[in-house]
Write a structure and sequence with these properties.
Layout: E1 33-35, H1 36-74, H2 76-90, H3 103-118, E2 138-139, E3 143-158, E4 182-186, H4 193-198, E5 226-231, E6 236-241, H5 248-252, E7 268-269, E8 274-277, E9 284-286, E10 300-306, H6 310-323, E11 331-342, E12 347-356, E13 373-379, H7 398-407, H8 426-459, E14 464-465, E15 473-474, H9 477-482, H10 484-511, H11 526-552, H12 561-599, H13 609-622, H14 627-633, H15 635-677, H16 687-691, H17 694-701, H18 708-725, E16 740-742, H19 743-749, H20 752-758, H21 762-766, H22 778-793, H23 798-827
Antiparallel strand pairs: 1-16, 2-3, 3-4, 3-10, 3-11, 5-6, 7-10, 8-9, 11-12, 12-13, 14-15
């Protein structure tokens, strides 16, 4: 089977199957006839195809290795089970969480949904949980609560006025009617760096403004409510503490042992005094107070419900917050955070539920910017549980144990080495092995890219035309760095390195002793929140990198014409696509604005311009327009909008896009056919035939054949001789009879010294996987049979055969001398007689 050349036909025009070897006809190997055209094409192009398939396979294996590492690291199967259980049962994302709209709904959601699941105190049959049986402190029976539940809120400040005066000394007409407006900035804005250094967390300080002067004193510097006042004379802003301050009952609660820490929810916890962990080391950076232990990243008013306090105490604390208006008009954001550990799956899971409170009096819609958002991330805090290989006894048996104890009887400090080596987790060891292989492979590819850049730099800035080979152009460094594929390679490798850096940062952080979860614990474990944040960042970079990996596959399709058609299609269509994109964006933005204006006031999907653009784009892809909801707002405009949108966007524009791609594909295919026809192909090379054929097996399992470079140069010489013999006719235009040569012809075309040095024989040429056997019509076969009979009827004797071989050797030596003479003339060491 041949690669890419059309099927062979006989004199009658019928297709015939080429025999893989003429030896079955009893022919001498030297007289075996081959098709010079197909053999030359095979020898010229197969090494290129082989290299291309190898590069494609290598890249796909590398990407598959990257994907395997991500799958093993993320353990999505286990993570999904935990996520689904917590999201649907504990958080109830699709149910009660959707009904949280007001501040009262928030407390109801806490009391009715979160508290019974996070702090369960009884079985389903109302029998109390037993501490002795380790039944207390589990969420859904298997997920151990870490520390407790943290509730935080951020509070706004009061602006000096509601409306910015248009002119000096001009007041808004409605300022007396609506005197108090809240700003977007939080009160933590007024906590300066100097104040954080002077009064770090836990410092006692009297606060006359708050009337909290008794022990333990005012623990922070931010009052419960603030107002910005602008002095009209100096035009400077100052901050005033608003009355009333937190109710006196909050201050009084500190004297009661049962409620001694209730007041802490009304005190402000200043922002982190320790920067996030260093990338690559996992240590927390010193910021203001020379502390390295993990700290919270933002300031807020925090209420922590401890697991050790029990469900009843925590419910009373929650009621205390509700009775004393812990949430009010100053509230801008509320969050619920907790973490659990599942020992069955060896996973810590961080859960965060954020509520953004709007100045319209309700919480912002679910999964919108600043609105209600659920984040659940699982982290393996012991990622590499390897088999113990030191300070232990491998292949432990009772006999080995007894011998070990006898050996170290006088060395008690060495007896621990007699314990059996602990076996590790197989998947953890596989994960580590994959990561090491991936890093080595990545650094090898990066070095290879740098070496290619260096080789181009050695050529020079611009391209260089080879003085000997007219069709050979050496690319300069300019062509290398301006190549789009080189740019994508560098970005891809940079993101791979970023992936490694983030991974190392995460591992070193969770393995750092300062970040280990110490149990039992009665505090919020902030390191789990940071680990979840790092994982979220890692997922973002991995998403971009996976997309780039998919785009880079087009680079490795270029060698195969049927695969390269897709590349050529996009290249041919890019100008039309740019113009189409302008038209497309005009219509999408136009319909987005129309939908935003007409239906945005009552439909969330059109409430903002970005939401409207996103909704219009989805409607275009799915052809799904919510006409029913639109009709409730304006029936006439809904029908008109639907019909215009479907006609202009869904019908006309999408079909224009399809027409552009189809036209570009046909043009690209035609150009590929013409280009490969010039190289002697009747049709485009087929990947299936190239990879799954008898010829491929010959390429894989033939090891004793003539070297492919020597065969190619010999076939190139025979091609030139054939074209010269037939008056300059191209080899690709000759008929089947003219294309026939024998193995002996190839052997004779190789100079004698080359034959001797390369140990070329008829058998080695005959066994070459590049030779394509000739298929001739019946007339040619009959003539060959007659010729064979004639040659067999007049055999040469031994003396004549020896003389014939000697004459052939002299002819080859003469040709070799002529070739050497020509090289000396070309190199300037000899001058031609014609000069």
């Amino acid at each position: 089977m041949r690669f890419g050349v059309g099927p062979r036909k006989n004199a009658d025009g019928d297709e015939v199957e080429a025999s893989h070897s003429p030896h079955s006809k009893g022919m001498d190997k030297g007289k075996a006839k081959i098709n010079l055209k197909t053999s030359f094409i095979e020898a010229r192009d197969w090494p290129k195809f082989r290299f291309g398939y190898f590069q494609l396979l290598k890249y796909l294996i590398f990407v598959a290795l990257y994907f395997a590492i991500l799958i093993v690291q993320m353990k999505v199967d286990d993570v999904f089970l935990i996520d689904e259980a917590l999201r649907q049962t504990v958080v109830d994302e699709g149910g009660s969480l959707q009904g949280v709209e007001s501040l009262g709904d928030f407390f109801n959601y806490l009391s009715d949904q979160i508290m019974p699941n996070v702090f369960p105190d009884a079985w389903y049959n109302d029998k109390p949980l037993s501490t002795a049986k380790d039944e207390v402190g589990y969420v859904l029976g298997y997920n151990k609560l870490v520390g407790g539940l943290l509730i935080t809120q951020k509070r706004r400040i009061v602006r000096p006025y509601c409306k910015q005066p248009a002119y000096p000394n001009f007041r808004s007409s409605y300022e007396d009617f609506y005197p108090t407006c809240f700003g977007d900035a939080g009160i933590e804005t007024f906590v300066t760096e100097e104040q954080r250094k002077e009064f770090p967390i836990g410092t006692k300080r009297d606060s006359p403004d708050m009337k909290w002067s008794a022990d333990p004193g005012w623990l922070t510097m931010v009052p419960w409510t603030l107002k910005v006042v602008k002095n009209p004379a100096t035009n400077r802003s100052t901050v005033e503490v608003l009355e009333p301050t937190p109710p006196q009952v909050v201050n009084d609660s500190r004297s009661d042992p049962k409620t001694s820490d209730y007041y802490s929810a009304f005190t402000y916890t200043i922002p982190s005094n320790t920067a996030p962990p260093q990338s690559g080391t996992g240590y927390w950076n010193e910021a203001s107070y020379s502390l390295k232990q993990p700290q919270l990243s933002d300031g807020a008013f925090r209420a922590f419900l401890k697991l050790s306090d029990g469900a009843t105490f925590n419910e009373r604390k929650l009621e205390f917050l509700k009775d004393n208006l812990w949430l009010d008009k100053f509230t801008s954001e509320v969050s619920i955070k907790f973490a659990v550990y599942n020992g069955m799956l060896s996973m810590f899971t961080f859960v965060s539920i954020r509520f953004g409170y709007s100045t319209t009096g309700t919480f912002l819609p679910f999964n919108t910017k600043g609105g209600t958002m659920v984040t659940i991330k699982s982290i393996n805090m012991e990622p590499y549980r390897m088999t113990q290989r030191s300070n232990c006894t491998s292949g432990w048996t009772a006999g080995k144990n007894a011998s070990c104890y006898e050996k170290f009887a006088n060395k008690p400090d060495k007896l621990f080495t007699c314990n059996e080596c602990v076996k590790g987790v197989v998947m953890d060891e596989v994960q580590l092995a994959l990561e090491v292989v991936f890093m080595i492979w990545l650094f090898y590819d990066i070095v290879s890219l740098m070496r290619r850049g260096l080789s181009h730099a050695m050529v020079g800035w611009n391209d260089y035309q080879d003085p000997v080979l007219d069709d050979e152009v050496h690319l300069g460094f300019k062509s290398f760095i301006t190549d789009a594929w080189t740019f994508l390679d560098m970005i891809n490798y940079a993101l791979f390195l970023m992936f490694i850096v983030i991974r190392v940062s995460l591992i070193t952080m969770i393995l750092n002793k300062d970040n280990a979860v110490k149990v039992p614990i009665n505090d919020y474990v902030v390191s789990l929140e940071y680990a979840a944040s790092i994982m979220k960042q890692q997922l973002f970079y991995n998403f971009i990198n996976i997309v780039l990996c998919l785009v880079r596959t087009f680079k490795f399709y270029r060698f195969q014409p049927r695969l390269a058609i897709v590349n050529q299609t996009l290249a041919a269509a890019h100008q039309d696509l740019v113009h189409f994109l302008l038209m497309f964006m005009t219509f999408v933005l136009g319909f987005s604005v129309i939908a935003h204006i007409l239906f945005g006031p009552e439909m969330h999907i059109f409430s903002t311009v970005p939401e409207a653009v996103n909704s219009i784009y989805i409607m275009m892809l799915t052809a799904g327009v919510d006409v029913a909801s639109m009709s409730h707002i304006d029936g006439t405009m809904a029908v008109l909008f639907y019909n215009l949108f479907m006609l202009l966007v869904a019908v006309i524009l999408l079909n224009v896009l399809l027409a552009i791609l189809v036209d570009s594909y046909m043009k690209a295919k035609e150009e590929e056919l013409e280009r490969w026809a010039e190289l002697g192909y009747d049709e485009l090379p087929n990947m299936i035939d190239q990879l799954f054929s008898y010829q491929t097996l010959r390429h894989l399992f033939v090891f004793t054949a003539i070297h492919e470079d020597l065969l190619l140069e010999t076939l190139r010489k025979l091609k030139s001789d054939k074209e010269e013999e037939h008056g300059g006719t191209s080899l690709y235009e000759m008929n089947a009879e003219q294309l026939v040569v024998t193995v002996q012809d190839i052997f004779d075309a190789i100079p004698v010294k080359v034959r001797v040095r390369a140990r070329v024989t008829i058998d080695r040429i005959y066994s070459s996987n590049y030779l394509q056997w000739a298929v001739e019509d019946e007339k040619i076969e009959e003539e060959d049979d007659l010729g064979n009979l004639h040659e067999a009827a007049i055999p040469l004797d031994a003396t004549e055969e020896t003389l014939y071989q000697r004459i052939q050797e002299l002819i080859q030596e003469n040709e070799m001398l002529h070739m050497q003479h020509g090289k000396h003339v070309a190199s300037g060491r000899l001058k031609s007689k014609h000069h």
